[in-house]
Amino acid sequence: VALLSCEAEKKKRVLNFPKTDLAMENMIPKPMKIIPTNGGFALDEFTAIYTSENASGFPEVGQFLADKIRAKTNLQIPVNVNEVPNREGIIYINQSDSLELDAPEAYQLYITADSVILNSNTAEGAFRGIQTIRQIIPETSNDTLAEYKVWTIPTGKIIDNPVFEYRGTMLDVARHFFTVEEVKKYIDLLAYYKYNVLHLHLADDQGWRIEIKSWPKLTEVSGGTEVGGGEGGFYTQEDYKDIVAYAAAQHMTIVPEIDMPGHTNAASVAYPFLNGNGKKIEPYEGTNVGFSTFDTRKDTVYTFIDDVVREISEITPGPYFHAGGDESHATKKNDFNYFVEKVQKIVNKHGKRMIGWDEIVTADVDSTAIPQYWSSGDNAKAAVRKNLKMILSPAKKAYLDMQYDSLSKYGLHWAAYVPVDSAYVWNPEAYEGIPLKNILGIEAPLWSETIETFDELAYLAFPRAIGYSELSWSTPENRNWENYKVRLANQAPFLDRMDVKYYPSPLIDWK
Ligand code: TNX
C-alpha cells in the first residue's frame, strides 16, 4: 500500500465508492434527460478545470465555477485556458459546434470516474451547465480514511435545454427600495436556478428609482419617498450599469420598467406638467393603485418619455424595455390606447422591444410588443388573436407577493393565497388555452408594498421562486410535485449557506 502513488490510491478509492444515482440528485430545474452510470468522480485537491476559447466567455465560466467550488468545499481548483493540465480528474468546459447543441442555452454533461466534460455552443449554455455541476457536488465530503477530502460527483450523462427562452422574476424597487448589494444577492440566488431575466420595476406612484440626467428632479425629488414613509433611495446610472454588468456575468438580462401612464404619481410630483388627472399632486406613500395618470395629449409628455427611454436604453444591453401600462384607471380608454401606441414607437426607435402589462393589447400594438399576462383572460385571448408572444405571470399562480396562507407575515392576497404546492402545480404549456407558440416564457413578480428588507424579500421569494425556475425550464413530463418536494427539501443546506431566510413551508420536509 505504501508504494501506491496518490493518484493510484485515489483511483482505487473511486472504485470503492458506494453506488451513485445521478437521476436521484437534487437538481432544480430538473434536466431534460439524465442517464446514470452509478460510479463516482472524485472532486478533490487534485482536480483542475480546463476551458476552451479564450475570447468567448468560457474562461470566465470556468473561473465562476472554481469560485463557487471554493465557497462550497474550500478547495482551490486551478483554471487552465487552452492548455490541458497535467492532472487527473479534469473538469473540461468545451465550446462545441455540435448540432445537438444548436440552442443558446443547451448543454451536455458527461461525467465519468476520470473527468467531467461540459459541452455547449455558447458561454451562456456553459454557464447554465455549471449550475448543474454546482448542484450535484455534495454538501459534505466523504471523509474516509484518506488524508485528503473527496466530494463524490455521481457519474452519467445529462442532456439539457430549457423549454422557455424567457425565465424571469420581477423585483419592485419602487414601493420599497432595495440596494445594489441586495439586488446582486438576489441575482446570485436566481442564477443558481438558471433564471435568465431580472425585471426591475423602477418607478411607481411612491418613488422614482433611476437617475435620468436630462430630468434630474425625478430622483432629487421622488427618489426619497416610499411606502410607509421610509427614506427610499435610487440607482445612479453608474449603479444601474453595475447591476447590469453583474447580471450579465451570470448570463442574466435586466429588463427595466418605467410604469406609465398610470402608476406615475412620483414622476408628476417631480414635474407637475406630466400630470393628467387634474388634481393637485402630492407625494404618495400609501398602497392604493389606479389614481394617477400622465397627460396623454401633451407633446411635452412624449418629449419627456423619449428622454427617459433613451437614457435607460443606452445603458441597457438587453433587448427589452418594459413600459408598464397596468391599472391606468385614471386614463380614458382611447387616451390609453393612443398613449401606448406612441410609447411603443418611442421604445422601438431606441432599439428595444416593448413589454407591457396585459392591458396594452387593447391598443394597436405591432407584432413585436410583448404583453405580460397578469390578470385578464380577455387580454390574453386578444394577444393570441394578434399572434403576439406573451409572458405568463398569472397573479393567482405566479405572484411572489401573494401570502402563502392567512398566517403569512408578509404579502397580500387579493389574487389568492399561493402555498408552495399551488405555485408549482400548474402547466404553463397549457395555461387557459394559450397556445405554446404564443408564450415567450414565465415571470414571477415580487411587488414590495409589504416588504422592506432582504430577509422579507427572501421570505416571499423562497422557496416559490425555485419552483418557477422548474416550470419555465423543465418539460411537463419531468415535473412532479412528489418528486419536486424532495428535491426542494434538499435545497435547505444551500439556502442556509447563502443565509437566505426562506419561508419554511410545512408542506416540505426540510433537510
Ligand atoms: C397589482 S400586477 C399591480 C401592482 C401591485 C400588485 C400587488 C400589476 C400589473 N399591478 O401595482 O403592486 O397588484 O399585488
From TrEMBL:
Catalyzed reactions: Hydrolysis of terminal non-reducing N-acetyl-D-hexosamine residues in N-acetyl-beta-D-hexosaminides
Keyword set, alphabetical order: Glycosidase, Hydrolase
InterPro entries xref list: Beta_hexosaminidase_sua/sub, GH, Glyco_hydro_20_cat, Hex-like_dom2, HEX_bac_N
This enzyme's EC code(s): 3.2.1.52
Pfam families linked to this entry: Glyco_hydro_20, Glyco_hydro_20b
PROSITE patterns associated with the record: PROKAR_LIPOPROTEIN
GO molecular function: beta-N-acetylhexosaminidase activity
Superkingdom field: Bacteria
PANTHER family found in the cross-reference section: BETA-HEXOSAMINIDASE (PTHR22600), BETA-N-ACETYLHEXOSAMINIDASE (PTHR22600:SF57)
Family per similarity comment: Belongs to the glycosyl hydrolase 20 family.
Protein name: beta-N-acetylhexosaminidase
Organism: Pricia antarctica
